[in-house]
Amino acid sequence: MTSFTPLHRLVIAVAVLASFVTFLDGTVVTVALPAISRELGGGITTQQWTVDAYLITLSALILLAGSVADAYGRVLVMRIGLIAFGIASIAVAAAPTPVVLIIARAAQGAAGALLVPSSLALITAVMRGEVQSRAIGVWTAFTTAAQLVGPLLGGLFVDFMSWRFVFLINVLPIAVTLFLLARLRLPEQARTTGVDWLSGVLCAVGLGGVVYALIEQPHQGWSSPLILVTAIGGAVLLIVFLLRQRRPQPLMPLSLFRVRNFAWGNLATLFVYAALSLNGFVIGVYLQQGAGLKATVAGLASLPITILMILLSSRAGRLSGRFGPRVFMAAGPLIMAVGALLLLFVSEQFDYWWQVLPSMIVLGIGLSLTVAPLTSAILGSIDESRSGIASAVNNAVARVAGLLVVAMLSTIVGGTLNLGGFHDAARVTAALMAIGGIVSWIGIRRPVAQRENEPVTG
């Protein structure tokens, strides 16, 4: 087995820390939502917008950021993103009203968009083959752990300090990443073509319009002129965005989707990450508002998933590099679907150990089998010269999935996140996971390079 070189280790450390900041901030907020709405007001709508304001800009601008990283250099773009993310985090922590909070969260998402594609592109640019699969496995273990440990950290800050300190957690990782980034010496590609800024605007405004309509329609109704205008206008802008991608040097090269594993892998990503986002949001909020747990205890609920991810993800990435990703990408989501259905045992007489823990264990096993092979299958199918935009597209798909499912939360849970709504969310989560597994089994194939590199036997 090929070992990591010192350069590989430094690249992995930078990639993990830079992505850690973005993913941590996307999930650490979950258990803080009840405290935020209590202090600033706005109920479930404020909670939805606190999550989705971040995801709108992150999702919409990740594509633009991937193109910018390929054009101007991944290290430079990452450095700018880290500094901007730190400034926006301080603004969120100091927000006096829901409107200021939501605007600052949107700024955080915009800065975060600069980090994720650049970090993964560093790995895919420096490493290929089984070493790349192992590196992505390590990246996946720690960045996914960041998403899962976020609720625990958030709960500790909410219970013992204030929800405002939740958004300052990332200051230390940002400082460490900037220090390591200064030591990283990589030959950056020369700037190639211009960046399609108009496509970035079309994508951002289009997504914003659709999400606004989905979040606000339970209060205003589909007959509201504002809801109709934002929904239809947003959809039209997204269609124009897609049509514009047929021009030379597009922001999102549609030719990427002619690569089988890239196309089917992103379709699987859409369903799996929608399910993960829905499950994370609902568990973080219901365990506090429905089951009456403290924020810290609610955050601890998902700790078994974190532990299993750290223990198993790197190994799953290594096995995927050796045997191909298809079986892992099919089995993992199906196992997670079973885990989601186990949450139907949650009742009014709440008991974490018998009603929630089994689900967390099964979800953790399934997630560990899924994420590293999924990422490796998608990015390993694309040439290194387009690794930045390929990473950006995949991350955009994952964030858009979470964005849309959180925007539809009121519809999914019937307007109130009570026990019945919690069970409805568990069923929808299981269905989305199962579809993701089926899509993977149908569409994913073992990369040709892996088959060619196998030793000849017999």
TrEMBL record:
The keyword Metal-binding does not apply. Gene3D superfamilies: MFS general substrate transporter like domains, Multidrug resistance protein D. The chain crosses the membrane at residues 12-33, 53-73, 80-104, 110-129, 136-157, 163-182, 194-215, 221-243, 264-287, 293-314, 326-346, 352-379, 400-419, 425-444. It is a multi-pass membrane protein. CDD domains: MFS_MMR_MDR_like. Residues 11-448 form the Major facilitator superfamily (MFS) profile domain. It holds the Pfam family MFS_1. It is found in: Cell membrane. The keyword 4Fe-4S does not apply. Keywords: Membrane, Transmembrane, Transmembrane helix. This is MFS transporter.
